[in-house]
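Quick question, first post here. What does this chain look like in 3D?
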Amino acid sequence: MNIAIIGLGLMGGSFALDVKSVISNSIIYGMDNSDLNQIEALKLGLIDQVISYDDLFNMDLILISIPVSHSLSVIPMVLDRINDNALVFDVGSTKESICKTLKNHPKRSNFLATHPMAGTEFSGPKAAHNGLYLGKTNILCEFEKTDINLKKFALEIFDKLNMKIIYMDPKSHDVHVAYVSHLSHISSFMLGKTVIEKEKNEKNIFDLAGSGFESTVRLAKSLPETWTPIFLQNKNNLVLAIEEYVSNLNDLKKIIKNNDGDKLSSILNDTNRIKEILSNKSENGK
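> Answer (accepted):
Ran it through. Tokens below.
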């Protein structure tokens, strides 16, 4: 099987490793707008050969893992160059914009909009590792618009990766990820910003920071070039999520200011059930 990966960072590189582990006869080709990333991907064995867009006609499967802002122009260009039996799918964190962009493309049925709920705060080919996709939840949008044989092909691959499939329309997808993914990154970036600004006056603040702080700001180490277009592309949903988050923070500020221990304890106890939700999620392998 000829597999092409466009974008050789964490997501693209890890897919190369995982798909090699489940499809033994696969040859992995790749391209990236960074020559350094292409060289690194070859050295690390993520890909077998660097190709160009002109080579895409010979591919059976094409994964696109690039910033969502570039996907809007790159994915249509890729679809223009593939053969009739090729499957193209992306792993972007937003789905409504790309689905609207491809709505009337002649080869729309060759495309599948996917969002694997996987990743780390690291980036580049060196961040790629085995198992990133294995057992993860994978959201598929507008599944009905993909060719029936290519849908079967895609599900066979996802099944080999033991992925849990969720079907969702693009609009609902973007609403949900605004809360469970994008807002988490916003919170992490803003906590980091707050502490960095405070550190200007209190030089020992990072010496006092413990594991709680480190784990909370972990996502702020994510690549800005990736997350800036995600935030902007999903801005309407994200603005609403931020407004709700800020409202809760303001309520909490008032409660603390008023020394209302009973109400504070009640809120913390109600929210503490998140550990049960996440525990059940982990036990069910979602």
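Residues 139 and 166 are 5 Å apart (CA to CA).
Strands lie at 2-6, 27-31, 49-50, 61-64, 87-90, 111-116, 137-141, 164-168.
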